[in-house]
Automatic annotation (TrEMBL):
Listed Polar residues bias regions: 34-63
Renumbered residue ranges of the record's region Disordered: 29-63
Superkingdom as given in the UniProt entry: Bacteria
Alphabetic keyword roster: Signal
The protein's name: Uncharacterized protein
Species annotation: Phyllobacterium ifriqiyense
Leader sequence segment: 1-25
Amino acid sequence: MTMKNRYCVLIGIAMLALHTAPVIAQEPKAPAASSETPAVSDTPSKIETALSPTQTPSEYLDNRSTPETLIKSYYNAINRQEYARAYSYYLPESPPQPFPQFQAGYENTKSVTVQFGKVEGEGAAGSAYWSQPIAVKSEEKDGSIKVFYGCYRLKLANPAIQGVPFVPLSLIDGTLQKSEKSMEESVPEGCEAP
């Protein structure tokens, strides 16, 4: 075998090793445990996320693109017990209450499921406003279930004219009332104009 042929064979072996090394180096993925994996539904009208002390937190979701995705992100933070992140979705000048009381309000919450109604929006004076009808099913740590209904109001100041710090789409406020109906039957048909 000539020197040139040996060189070609060595190059071929090296290239083969480079192409197969990532495959060989990968560890096989463990199958997902169906009863211990948080259930997440990313449908346009509903999101479900459950968390127990022995489970891995649900996938991190932080999306302020639309009123619905912002509210999904808000409840994702609640379900992951990331209360400071949930609190940050409110406009800085309109927090729902002081943070310690906000966090304490969820101390008995195990998981939250959300269902959305049809959002209404309007623009005014360089800002856009939305009202998002919602129903919430809360599973408490003692196993009890509570259903609430109401509306969230949201605001986005025109991004093209904002300064620093930039304020993304945010919650202005939310009003929820206890419902005696199922979550699906509790979604309001609409909200007052934003």
